[in-house]
Amino acid sequence: MVRPALVLPPAPDDRWQLATQMGVTDAVIHTLEIGDGTQFWDYDHLRRICNWFEDAGLSVSVVEGSVPLTDTTRLGLDGRDEEIAAFQQFLRACGDLDIGVVCYDWMAGIRWARTSAHVESRGGSYVTAYENDKMRGGPTHEAASRSREELWENLEYFLERVVPVAEEVGVKLGLHPDDPPREEVRGVPRIINSVDAYDRVLGIYESEHNGVTFCQGNFAAMGVDIPATIHHFGDRINFVHFRDVEGDADEFVETWHDDGPTDMLAAMQAYREVGFDGPMRPDHVPTMAGEQNDNPGYHTKGRLFAIGYMKGLLEQTR
Ligand SMILES: O=C(O)C(=O)C[C@H](O)[C@H](O)CO
């Protein structure tokens, strides 16, 4: 079953209540986006958060991005074995707490990148955009000296050590695409930028626990056919980010969920057809009237709209 989910703060505020009022039961913890930026979780800390959510009628089904994984591991630096051990420990805690999905990414040096967060969209709402020409210049990033093959070797090293633990404890990993899905951003190489790249990742360790976070907006920026690609990955999709963009990996603008180039109904139909059984969250949303745009993509009103839209699509594909 597709379960609409939302990134919620790790302590309650009205966003928890808005979620339950909309019938959302699945919470995503991503404190780098909503919260205090915590990335290193131990069992007790997570237990406390899970209990709190449960008391409010919500369950934590994903920890995303804000996970104990840094460039030490992505770049294969000294200390990666200790970091991987911490990640294994974190997976065990998630398993104990029935947190079914862990979403991570392999973007070294530069996280998800935008060059504008105030592009005017429908009715004066704001969306984010990326223009590669505006990204050039500035100091050379330390990670720019790394080769694509090194990043692959490091990812392989990581997966060989963490997927067996994920299998053992019943947690599914979902690798998020590089955003934007380019060969490089400001000279820093990126590798998770195509369907072929994902095929390579999935082949490194054949297990449903080594899967995909299907961030639709990034696959749209890759220029692929979205429903066909959902069918291509099938049961290796462990988590979905529902959103759309207009443009490509050199230059794009994010769109309202109901106003982008992708046939969202066909996409939802495809998730149904492949039997996707897991959390699906709206990703970046427009900033709407009365919101400050101080956390672009993650304000509340657009997410309420997106959940309603997703639920409508889900009814159409029953
Ligand atoms: O770039 C995006 O679309 C994201 O949502 C970023 C992800 O949250 C993050 O990279 C997950 O590890």
TrEMBL record:
Tell me the cofactors it needs: Mn(2+); Fe(2+)
Which UniProt key words apply to this protein?
Iron, Lyase, Manganese
* GO MF entries: mannonate dehydratase activity
The record ties this protein, via Pfam families, to: UxuA
Its pathway is: Carbohydrate metabolism; pentose and glucuronate interconversion
Gene3D superfamilies, sorted: Divalent-metal-dependent TIM barrel enzymes
Which InterPro entries would you find in this protein's record?
Answer: Man_deHydtase, Xyl_isomerase-like_sf
Q: Which residues cross the membrane?
A: none
What SUPFAM superfamilies does its record include?
A: Xylose isomerase-like
Q: What is its EC number?
A: 4.2.1.8
Name of the top EC class for this enzyme: lyase
Q: Which reaction does it catalyse?
A: D-mannonate = 2-dehydro-3-deoxy-D-gluconate + H2O
Which family does the UniProt entry place this protein in?
A: Belongs to the mannonate dehydratase family.
Q: What does this protein do?
A: Catalyzes the dehydration of D-mannonate.
**Annotated protein name in UniProt:** mannonate dehydratase
Upper taxonomic lineage: Archaea, Methanobacteriati, Methanobacteriota, Stenosarchaea group, Halobacteria
